[in-house]
Amino acid sequence: MSVLARSSVKIGSAVSRAFHSSAAPAYKVAVVGAAGGIGAPLSLLLKQNPLVTHLSLYDLAPVTPGVGADLSHMDTPAKVSAYTGEDLGAALKDADVIVVPAGVPRKPGMTRDDLFATNAGIVANIAKTAGKVAPNASMCIISNPVNSTVPICAEILKKAGVYNKNKLFGVTTLDVVRANTFIAENQKVDVTKTNVKVVGGHAGITIIPLLSQIPNAKFSQEDKAALTQRIMFGGDEVVKAKGGSGSATLSMAYAGARFTHSILRALKGEKGVIECAYVESNVQPGVSFFSSPIELGPNGIEKIHHYGEVDEFEKKKIEEAIPELKSSIEKGIQFVKNHPQ
User: Fold this and answer.
1) Peptide bond into 145 cis (omega under 30)
2) What is the pTM of this model?
């Protein structure tokens, strides 16, 4: 287990226990891109969450009302509404949490940066609408490239005069989930008691697992290098395994549900809820957005934790990531400047 105690309970056990709580608060959660490869299973998981009383689905795909109808037959408390076409505003109105997996998926040979041209415009439009109809919502951005799409959201919300840096999150939970899985396999330990701190960003070399901070873990230099590489480029492994027909959807849906559940737990007042996320931060000199452990509360981010002491291998990886992060952040900012909304 990492230096910071693992605060995120596994989705299944947490949801099961919460179903037996008669005093659970009520929240509206909107999923934008709800009919897609990530959005549909993510919505399925959120429909099971007792803290969600209204699950609002939006997608351009005409099948979206069918996804909503399908989920509405589940015997869980959340009311389901589904929207498509011009109804994005109706879907987002007064949401407490907005989760955004919308956009085109990665294809073979694509980097996350290759996705930028299409996904940047999609995310900008969502942020613009959210700023009008749900300015107090916590926005959880899954759409890649996260290193750029989160700064895009920030700039759009600033223009609208509603930006709250404590309520905008780039969801990097999949990196943590992968790291937990790969490290537990390597060390032959219980994955449910494993929590690897992963910092930096959410693309390739900007994903830095801090293996030196795992108590009682022992790695050869070869193992450490190989595991770090695998965690950094785990998405490529999935694309290849799917024969080029898709990317990481189910594991991303699980990770997105875990992060959303943490947001909701903190909203209802639970203390000590900590997740790694890509947020506006001064943790790392030279970059304005960085992923590190954040402590969540009813108003979003309560505290941004520094990532702590690292070894020389990890220090070098962080140094290598900085130029890439700076470039991605600036790309997002320039997109908004060059494309007046």
Assistant:
1) yes
2) 0.92
Q: Answer yes or no: are the C-beta atoms of 341 and 302 closer than 8 Å.
A: no
The residues spanned by each domain of the chain are 11-171, 173-257+268-327
Q: Using DSSP, state whether 25 is helix, strand or coil.
A: coil
For the segment(s) 11-171, the CATH number from 1.20.58.460, 3.40.390.10, 3.40.50.720, 1.10.1740.10 is 3.40.50.720
The mean pLDDT value for 319-339 works out to 96
Active site residue 54: no
pLDDT of amino acid 109: 66
Average pLDDT over residues 19-26: 56
Is residue 23 over pLDDT 70?
Answer: no
Looking at domain 173-257+268-327, its CATH class is alpha beta
Q: How far apart, in whole angstroms, are the C-alpha atoms of residue 193 and residue 133? A: 40
Residue 275: name the closest of 285, 283, 265 by CA: 265
Catalytic residue, chosen from 20, 54, 202, 261, is 202
